[in-house]
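Re: that chain you flagged

S.,

Sorry for the slow reply, it's been a week of failed gels. I finally had a moment to sit down with the sequence you sent. For the record, here it is as I used it:
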Amino acid sequence: MHLAQYLRRKEAAKYLNKKYGLGSEKTLAKLACVGGGLEFYKAGPTVLYSPSTLDQWALSKIGEPQRSTSDSGQDKRCSVVGSEPDKRSGDLP
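Prediction finished late last night. Pasting the structure tokens below so you have them in one place:
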């Protein structure tokens, strides 16, 4: 018989960060409070997560492979020098 292993929130955040490079204790706490997050269990006041649920949640957050930040059309942090209109000269879009 195999018993499920459960992780407390702090250990769950470490697990996510080590395995996937994302997730934090604060994020898990907020999602547990406001909803929209992953499934968890309660043992009295203690919140517990199963590793399989953590894996499913993390994988759902990771997108498809990309070759540039413009692939998804959403990440605008990268800008090309000279690509922005010069607002001082009146060259507006």
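What I noticed first: The mean pLDDT is 82.

Talk soon,
D.
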